[in-house]
Design a protein that fits this description.
This protein is α+β, with helices and mostly antiparallel strands. 14% of the residues lie in helices and 33% in strands. The chain is built from six helices and 20 strands. Bound molecules: 2-acetamido-2-deoxy-beta-D-glucopyranose (NAG) (5 copies). InterPro entries: EGF, EGF-like_Ca-bd_dom, Notch_Cell-Fate_Det.
Length: 299
Amino acid sequence: MTIKSIILVMVSLQTYTANGQIICERQMSVEWRTQPKHHIMKWTLMNNICSNFYTDCWNININIERNILEQQALNVPQICPLQLQLGDSLFISSEASFQSHGMNLGNVSMEEFIRCPPKDFLQDQLIFGCRLRGMHQVDPRWLEVGTHYFAEVQTKGPLLCNLGLRLNVTVKQQFCQQSSNAPFCSRHGRCLSHVWEEAYNCHCSQQYSGRFCQEFDACASKPCQNNASCIDTREGTIGNSYECACPSQFAGKNCSEIIGQCQPHACLNGNCSNVTPNTFLCECDKDFTGKKFILFSML
Ligand SMILES: *[C@@H]1O[C@H](CO)[C@@H](O)[C@H](O)[C@H]1NC(C)=O
Ligand SMILES: *[C@@H]1O[C@H](CO)[C@@H](O)[C@H](O)[C@H]1NC(C)=O
Ligand SMILES: *[C@@H]1O[C@H](CO)[C@@H](O)[C@H](O)[C@H]1NC(C)=O
Ligand SMILES: *[C@@H]1O[C@H](CO)[C@@H](O)[C@H](O)[C@H]1NC(C)=O
Ligand SMILES: *[C@@H]1O[C@H](CO)[C@@H](O)[C@H](O)[C@H]1NC(C)=O
């Protein structure tokens, strides 16, 4: 097969994929794995090439403000974008039909990714200085935290890049551990990253808050009554440490006491008991427990 015929085959494949539905499968939210993973990326035009930035490559319908470069990026055929955890390894496996010619892969800027690299491509941008045949591991130095753009660079012309041989690789780190051996999210949450986020962060379970879910949120059980606002007062996972800011006619730790003293019919459907010289409580009758205090007109 000559290079020309290979390219012709590729052009027809590309048309097919552009008109077909190559939609990259994508989870919107991913949980941090405790073990690094090996990813194998097939460097091929046969499949896994998406064309429309949002709908095909990310499989989302999204209305966000786009800058000019992003608008240009919208219709860049590319290998489905990849997101890795820091520490994962990436192997690139070239398609059999490319192997006799070899493939060159370069680390390029976003602009070069969108427009495909120019001919005066710098040698120190080459990820595989030799021509890529079979499967090769990408050196970790190309996979630091951040977004990286890899593109096919051909000395004979950038055509294959234009057809889609370019890859957006985002490498994310996690901020879910208070120290290197600490449990993830203090065991009170999940370490997650949304597809557009640059890192993994804790998403705390109920009652916990803080960057590492290290804080017990005493307010989560809604202890303050009568529309009082709750303030979590102590840091840490222990204790029911909260304060209720009571509206003017209420008092007590939970704002459950009414300011004043018992008067006849003070509690409409319950018994009245004085708590302090200044406050009383209504103990509601059985059928009126839904609303704890049946208010009466003050004074
Ligand atoms: C890859 O290319 C980008 C954009 O030109 C550059 O900022 C980055 O330093 C390069 N990576 C390495 C490891 O050289
Ligand atoms: C590359 O992927 C990241 C998400 O990981 C995205 O934010 C960025 O816009 C993509 N860049 C291009 C040019 O497609
Ligand atoms: C305040 O509410 C908490 C939680 O509902 C409860 O355990 C506590 O006994 C209440 N304290 C007072 C003084 O009512
Ligand atoms: C509770 O507080 C909110 C905001 O402070 C206020 O809009 C609302 O009317 C209050 N509800 C009652 C029943 O007092
Ligand atoms: C109210 O007081 C009466 C008489 O003392 C008693 O029988 C009743 O159980 C009390 N109700 C409540 C809700 O405490």
